Amino acid sequence: METERFDTVVIGAGQAGLSAAYYLRRAGRPFVVLEGHERIGDNWRERYDSLRLFTPAYGVSLVGFPYKKKGQICPTKDEMADYLERYVAHFGFPVRLGVRVTGLAREGDTYMVDTADGMRVEAANVIVASGAHRDPRVPAFAKDLDPSIVQMHSTEYRNPTQLRPGGVLVVGAGNSGADIALEVARTHPTWLSGPERGHIPVDIDGWVSRHIAFHVVRFIGMHVQTVRTPMGRKAREKDLGQGTMLVRVKPKQILAAGVTWVGKTDGATDGMPTIEDGQVLSEVTNVIWCTGYRHDLSWIDLPIFGEDGRPMHDRGVVLGEPGLAFVGLPFQFAAASDVLPGVARDARFVVKRLPARMPAVVPASSGSAVA
Questions:
Q1: 140 and 122 share a domain?
Q2: For 273-300, how does the pLDDT look when each residue is reduced to its tens digit (9 = 90+)?
Q3: Do both 124 and 144 map to the same domain?
Q4: Beta strands 190-193; 260-262: pairing state
Q5: Rounded Cα–Cα distance for residues 59 and 214 (Å)
Q6: Around Cβ 367, how many Cβ atoms within 10 Å?
Q7: Hey, is 338 helix, strand or coil?
Q8: Which range marks the domain in which residue 258 is found?
Q9: Longest CA pairwise span in the chain (Å)
Q10: Are 166 and 284 in contact (CB under 8 A)?
Q11: Could you give the CA distance from residue 160 to residue 60 in angstroms, rounded to a whole number?
Q12: Cα(326)–Cα(291) distance, integer angstroms
């Protein structure tokens, strides 16, 4: 097995990983960023076609390189992806593309990072910025639905042309589910399944939000709802366990579009989806699972997880594992930790706390790189 050595390995080249790269560069720490996609920003490009960010254009900038593109108030997913690509090019970060990490362990004081192509990377420090929610979650009873029903997770959905004629059941009434339900309702009878968890009572695409509300929401998400405040700890439990409120879409917009809002989908009857009240949706020919992701960090072979399966850490710095840290976890320190406005602060914190212990560095010699 071929081996390379670095002071610090960053796993993931999304906004979290690139923020960590910025602070590593500023601190003069040698590092490499490993990214499983073939192109910077593909984690955005691969989402549904109509996706736009909830953050206004002036609020999406990563540290050190402002987002300057003018256009819609909130950038599209492709505009955001292109910005991340420009960000890497501007700083010349050492990013290895198409390198999927499959394992992380430790031997002595050195971390061992294994990849799908058989490469092993040794590092004194590792920053995991790949996100914990990357394994799409679909309920077990999905297999009991009629084989003729088109089923896909929201990660696979791009636009309504993928759907059969007939009814569409969107399972999961969060932000992705609401967005997708509004879109498919233009061409298909649509049901949205799941409890209403409230919504932000402003129009995030309007003037008020652009000049006032966004700043208020960002301040709360950055400085009020943190793990250090009672309000923040309460919000953290709700955010991690019960889902979040709607941001762009309002319940009245969903109903006005002709979407039928139903309760939880909890099984199948004669191959058709069944709602918790016993209603059988016999007209459904498509199901889109907007049911989130499993918290899967099983590729990390280290004793860092609590009883809930989540890593034990202080603001991203892993307890009992010097040199190991996370950036971009949900509510890592604050409600904004896993979104664009919050990743820089967490990245700065963990980089400052990396031990100053560097192994011999072997120059990069394989894999696609962006310099």
A1: no
A2: 999 999 999 999 999 999 988 778 999 9
A3: no
A4: parallel
A5: 9
A6: 18
A7: coil
A8: 136-199+245-289
A9: 64
A10: yes
A11: 28
A12: 24
* pTM for the structure as a whole: 0.87
Helix (H, G, I), strand (E, B) or coil at 6: strand
342 in the same domain as 299: yes
State whether 150 and 282 are in the same domain: yes
The residue ranges of DSSP E strands in the chain, in sequence order, are 3-11, 31-35, 95-97, 101-107, 110-115, 120-128, 135-136, 150-153, 167-171, 190-193, 260-262, 265-269, 272-275, 284-289, 293-294, 313-314, 317-318, 324-326, 368-370
- Report in angstroms the alpha-carbon separations of 318 from 46, 65, 208: 30, 29, 40
Of 48-52, 54-58, 89-93, 191-195, which range is least confident? Answer: 54-58
Report the alpha-carbon distance of residue 309 to residue 324 in Å, rounded: 17
CATH value at residue 33: 3.50.50.60
**Domain co-membership, 125 together with 148:** no
Is 103 in the same domain as 184?
Answer: no
Rounded to 5°, the CA angle 328-30-41 comes to 40
Tokens, residue 125: 């420090």
* Closest to 317 (Cα-Cα) out of 278, 351, 271: 351
- Based on the domain organization, do 285 and 306 belong to the same domain? no
Copy the structure tokens of residue 254: 């969903």
* 317 closest CA partner among 338, 296, 333: 333
Report how many domains make up the chain. 2
- Considering the domain architecture, whether residues 282 and 333 belong to the same structural domain is answered as no
Determine the pLDDT at residue 366: 38
Within a domain: 82: yes
- Give the residue ranges of DSSP H helices in the chain: 15-26, 42-45, 77-91, 175-184, 207-208, 214-219, 230-242, 251-256, 340-352
pLDDT value at residue 214: 66
pLDDT top residue among 194 and 203 = 194
Q: What is the pLDDT of residue 362?
A: 40
Query: Of the candidates 333, 308, 313, 312, which has an alpha carbon nearest to the alpha carbon of residue 232?
Result: 333
- Residue 208 within a domain: no
Rounded to whole angstroms, how far apart are CA atoms 266 and 280? 11
Q: Coil, helix or strand for 249?
A: coil
Q: How many helices (H) and strands (E) does the chain have?
A: 9, 19
